[in-house]
Amino acid sequence: MVSRVIPVDPFDLVIFGGTGDLARRKILPGLFRRFCSGQMPEGSQIIGAARSDIDDAEYRNMVSDAVEEFGGGRTCERGTLEAFLDTIHFVTTDAKGDGGWNELNGKMRPDCVRAFYFSVGPSLFGDLAERLHRFGLATPDSRIVVEKPFGHDLKSAKALNATLAQHFDEAQIYRIDHYLGKETVQNLMAVRFGNMLFEPLWNAQYVDHIQITVAETVGVGGRGSYYDKSGAMRDMVQNHLMQLLCLIAMEPPAKFDPDAVRDEKLKVIRALEPVDWHHVVRGQYGAARDAPSYREDVENPKSSTESFVAMKCHVSNWRWAGTPFYMRTGKRLKARTSEIAVVFKDAPHSIFGVDAGRHRNVLAIRLQPNEGMTLDVTIKEPGPGGMRLLDVPLDMSFAETLGAEAEEAPDAYERLIMDVIRGDQTLFMRGDEVEAAWAWTDPIIADWVMRNDVPKEYEPASSGPEDALMLMHRDGRKWREVKA
Fold first, then answer.
1. What pTM was estimated for this model as a whole?
2. Any idea what the CATH number is for the domain that residue 73 is in?
């Protein structure tokens, strides 16, 4: 199987915050991999912009180190790292002042796609947007990419949308969520809407429940000051898990078109019922023998911020009436995994007796690690001794099935950046979608504050608080095991 690289037009990409951690770890190594794959057209240029007082040569050294450290050991058949570095420039720029903007404008070319990546804190979005227009860098076809967190609540998200709308049309704004760039997430749409096998069964008549799990083994690390003001609900549920739920629950769009897809996702968010307080579990990891507690990590001995959330919610529409969606996410858990599990109902009548009730079909979509899908089906256990049933997985691991092509497939940031250059907003959140997500999330957080809710402490390297297990057990269900 030969990988098909879709070309893009020559572009000028400016990375504000070009010396920051995200640029070093994800954006620049990802662009290098696209360069190696032949998807970065000749004549394109990448311009780092930050307050650092460095020149092109010093910035290229930084980019070279970033590619060596975070590039995944990729060999570049198209040319050398030096060829990629020739496309790199740097301009010292003051986001809140006037310094560097005229020089930056002088590097932009009139006949190229212009994209501006805001790899900075949301407090600078408005300043950058205003200066892009005031200094003549923005054109009617320019695109801006903004990173989460997109607001802290509904009020701040609306204010941020209004600020950006003063300078850019909605069609020019790309709100990036890297989860939507993962190969398996996009494959979810292909599996649902490209296979007659699944779509007729994708509803409350046949699906017992759906589980969405995003588990991490690491703690908050160096993000303590940000995370303690955010917590798992704002950092993960309001965006990443919400987007996964939308893709699972959405109706088939009329066509695979950016606004058609996002219209259907918005309908799901607006159909979410308010969550009762006893259907939400908050947790906070304690100390382990070789690792500090959450409160020690964030240097706040009285912190009541959650590092774990589990919840049960419902989508009030005809397709999903009565089918619960269980979501959980947390830090310092026993395994790093992201998975969506569609658990189908039992057969209406079993000819195999009571043993059959312990077997169910489950479609599991793995986002990380080892992206792929498995479908658990029930067969007869081999050997004599009667009809004994056994569950076996039909496994489609991308790395095994697609071989070298899977290994060379672009990661989430690579794919999404190229979509920005193409002008394809399908995998990016729209402003009304972000606001609807906050409108659903805010009351849950407000209820915690009103009840002075304290997160349940859980043991590191576990599956989270016991109350999260009971959330499922009360319904006669159980979480899929988070495997180490």
1. 0.90
2. 3.40.50.720
Contact 345, 206 (CB under 8 A): yes
pLDDT, tens digit, 9 for 90 and up, residues 187-242 = 888 888 888 888 899 999 999 999 999 999 999 987 888 899 999 999 999 999 99
User: Domain of 108?
Assistant: 11-147
- Find all residues with CB under 8 Å of 121, minimum gap 6, and list them: none
- The total domain count for the chain is 2
Using alpha carbons, select from 239, 224, 221 the residue that is nearest to residue 303: 224
The active-site residue, picked from 178, 240, 279, 359, is 240
Residue 443 and residue 315 share a domain: yes
Whether 240 is a known active-site residue: answer yes
Single out the residue in 147, 162, 189 at which a domain terminates. Answer: 147
Residue 171 included in any domain:
no
Residues 113 and 251 in one domain: no
* Sheet architecture: strand order including 280-285: 389-397, 372-380, 362-368, 337-344, 207-215, 324-330, 308-314, 280-285, 456-458
Residue type, 165: A
Among 35, 43, 38, residue whose Cα is nearest residue 12 = 43
